[in-house]
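Hi everyone,

Forwarding the result from last night's run.
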Amino acid sequence: MTTYMYTTSVPVFKQLLNSLNVILTKAEAYATEKNFKPTVLLEARLCPDMFPLSRQVQIATDFAKSVSARLAGVEVPAYDDNEQTFAELQARIGKTLSFIESLTPSQFEGSETREIVLRPGTPKEKKMVGHNYLSNYGLPQFLFHVTTAYAILRHNGLEVGKGDFMGDY
């Protein structure tokens, strides 16, 4: 039987990372069609004090992999955060999808009560049980960054809608 913690995390991450991948493909085609450098979109932000599109994608993948890894009780893969093109961001999404797809539902057994420690040994250390970590921290963070990436592109003229955001489910 598939665990609740698995079904509430991995399928959501997969669905929205796949849709984000499709949206990035559309964004790159949009830049080509309108004859401007893709970096215009990759560096775009909604507000000067917010991260640009490329960083939003990086953080979204960071949450998908780290939340999944912590709940499954495995080491969180480290990424370099050096992507500068749409292709590199899409490769990062692909790497994240491969990682979370390698996790099995049985690895999530008991994770709802597993203690999750964020920033261990630092003044910002925070401890949560798995269920709270997923529902009150991990999923909202992931959704925020995927939504912000979508909003940056939409704000810059990319014709995408709710169906593009939701992807296949």
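Residues 4-105+119-166 form a domain with the Four Helix Bundle (Hemerythrin (Met), subunit A) fold (CATH 1.20.120.450).

Cheers,
N.
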